[in-house]
What we know:
binds (2R,3S,4R,5S)-2-(hydroxymethyl)piperidine-3,4,5-triol, 2 domains
Amino acid sequence: xxxxLTIALITATAFxxxxxxxxxxxxxxxxxxxxxxxxxxxxxxxxxxxHGAGFLKVGDTWYMIGEDRSxxxxxxxxxxxxxxxVNWKFERKIIENHVTHPDLGTKRMIERPxxxxxxxxxxxxxxxxxxxSNYGASEAGVxxxxxxxxxxxxxxxxxxxxxxxxDCNIFIDDDGTAYFISxxxxxxxxxxxxxxxxxxxxxxxxxxxxxKSREAPAxxxxxxxxxxxxSACTGWDPNPCMLSYSKSLTEGWSELKQVGNxxxxxxxxxxxxxxxxxxxxxxxxxxxxxxDPRLPxxxxxxxxxxxxxxxxxxxxxxxxxxxYTTGEWHPTPTADRYISKKHWRVLDYSSAETTxxxxxxxxxxxxxxxxxxxxxxxxxxxxxxxxNRWDWQAPKVQHRIMVDMGRVHTLxxxxxxxxxxxxxxxxxxxxxxxxxxxxxxWIPVSRGSWMPYWTEVDFAPCQARYFMLTSxxxxxxxxxxxxxx
Length: 485
Ligand code: DGJ
């Protein structure tokens, strides 16, 4: 189902949210800071457009390819290169509408392009979802080039081994055997296609996760175990990411188990990167935060994940430091960035649910992201009377939380952390952020119909002792933490 978007009245960007270029490599210790939530900007100052990204490391350089969603429903495939996953150089359009293939841009579109290198043929090969405008074609496409940054030549498009194929990824095993994995037969199962030695065609396939309707698959091998992440099929809407693992690619996959929070931190998996350091191996999850707020502004989100024998932990952080030599990482210390909450108090709030849980308003400013403020929960509909548990006719209500910081500060932005427990209930989407010097006269400094969670939302610097977050939602709002800087 497509996410229904209302046009942003005034987006955060229009309020002066600077789309920060991704930040620096620290001098000491060679840690690179990766910041999530903002659009990436390339070395030319343009948006990085590489959604559903695929990666290939050549020497010390990562090449990233992905959908260019900047202006059309028919993405070109862009390639960028980087030595730190932060500073990206635009290489070129490696696959281009109307150029690489006459059908591209009209009768065909590309999603989730993935890149690999075939040592046997010394060719670079791209597999992707090769689709018609109504997703009816359900085909895969294959392209190749003798140099990593192309241009790529169309080799083949069709249903691999006659199987309808949509969302896809690739996986190269330690012995160099390549696989194409895709959502098959009208999104019902996953198909694992073993590729020929030249990586250009599928030679056999195995049906996995029968009737489980999984998409956005991403496989990684850790030791002798294969781990697969996948999502449910909900269009561009986020849903829980599920893990399965097995000692064999073609059989024995464990039951699907949720990892991360219920919306995978508002992402859908695109790739898993392995950073083999001198001290540790770190795996990085790369996912798309789709439609944030529109498709072209979808964000690429990266965070560390770690695997145990039968599980996977999503270490989602908005910002983390990683050392590519040693493999070490840690959340970026933020102590000095955000204004201390020592003298803060909640001045006013619309409501708080304290009967069916401890969701006091003070939880939003207690410095603990595991506690949360939730407005009063709606009454559940009596069973049997309605198909839905929640009253869809209920009017939208304005909710608010007002905070006194104890003294006047110069503010230039806020950061809202959503609940990270096992529920997505009460997520704020439409919001206004106000500031005030006296607690009576309020100035709106940021407003949008799509609140960017975990993202620093900049506004023009101003003096304020008070701030207020308001949101108009049907069933209330929840917030784990509000920070200002
Ligand atoms: C979810 C898929 O993962 C995306 O690649 C894209 O195909 C959307 N569905 C389209 O709704």
